[in-house]
Amino acid sequence: MEKKKYYVNLGTQEISQMVYGNNNDFTIYATGEEVFLLREKFNDIHDADMRSYVRSHIPFTPYHNDPQNDDYDTGMTEVIQMIYQLGDEKTKKDINEMGILEK
What we know:
52% of the residues lie in helices and 14% in strands. The protein is α+β, with helices and mostly antiparallel strands.
């Protein structure tokens, strides 16, 4: 399957073939299936974020004992790893400079 160029914004969880506004935090080259998998990972992060929001209104549950936050963190790490794997040289350089995959 042919890989196409996509622009990814982590904050908005946008994946687009066109540059619009500030949607080009990272540039990746991916097949349709890889984009689908990345979208699924973004959806999982969104779901974890919503569960965490609901949990935040329960004051007696401490943050460190919150699996929703762990799910969110794990999802972000998986997304960034996938972006790194699919990314162009600038994307890989930027992620390396951030130091977020060094753990």
